[in-house]
């Protein structure tokens, strides 16, 4: 069975080949190469890194093109999805807050626990206390504990919000849920605490989902047959758009107990990725070829698009005997296109002024 999304010679394939700007593709190749080399430098695999553009500086954060080489994804794999005994709802929830909040160390800050393998929010317990509140009118002890930790963390100027993404919609959704559930008015003036977002996610353990009221978001994610279905459960909730819906779906795809993979034929490009794709295929309408399909087409044709002379290398995550991350270069570092389709997420994560960087 042909598993290619856009077969060679098809109408869409011809439209893409006729409209692609090879100069932009070459610049983007360089951008991805530099992001990869920067990661290798940060991991101590190569000795030098000389950025060719301020947007590629070490202080600018990007998601690594290979999902299992991204430091946040490595954290999720090592400290969430592989931890024995963690309830499946808590695996999904703690994976999601990695992106919803964004800052490294957010789990430690929000729980007050230093041990990464124990710093997990108990979304199941939070959800139970929400339901009990409706019966008793009393805020649960665990809920109060997390709120107290969040207030102290803010007072101590600890960081929980990432700097490369806008969190306004997520913050609004969390605040409105807490105010509606506990105060009866979603638009109450009370700003709540940094725990708002966690409490909102905990409600996904018991409230009907917006996408399918017969299931909760958590249950929907657990039984989703593919990445697109997981994406629909997330974006079915208020204030979650394509960007966070796709990121949190792909983040959960490293969970071996879920049914979907990030190497799916479905892609929901973020704002920066969309702009890059418009530049790369000028004059091609979204009706002719949707933006997400363009990403998959580039992945499926990457060797040919790299002019058949660019060697592809992969940075692969493998745990050592002690369970710590180790990276291996399977081929020499040369100009190439990275195999994972998530290359375009990189542009969405960085400075929107720099979708790709020229030599």
Characterization of this structure:
With 359 residues, this protein is mainly α. It contains 16 helices and 2 strands. Strands 1-2 form a two-stranded antiparallel sheet. Strand 1 (315-319) and strand 2 form a beta hairpin. 41% of the residues are buried.
Brief sketch in words of this structure:
This protein has 359 residues and is mainly α. 48% of the residues lie in helices and 3% in strands.
SSE layout:
Blueprint: H1 11-19, H2 22-42, H3 71-81, H4 88-101, H5 106-111, H6 123-136, H7 141-155, H8 168-183, H9 196-202, H10 217-223, H11 227-235, H12 242-252, H13 271-280, H14 291-300, H15 302-305, E1 315-319, E2 325-329, H16 343-349
Antiparallel strand pairs: 1-2
Helix pairs in contact: 3-4, 4-9, 4-10, 4-12, 6-9, 8-9, 10-11, 11-12, 13-16
Features:
single chain, globular, 48% helix, two-stranded antiparallel ribbon, 16 helices, mainly alpha, 359 residues
Overall pLDDT, averaged? 85
Counting helices, strands and paired strands, the structural category is mainly alpha
**Overall 3D geometry?**
globular
**Widest sheet: strand order?**
1-2
Largest sheet: 2 strands, antiparallel
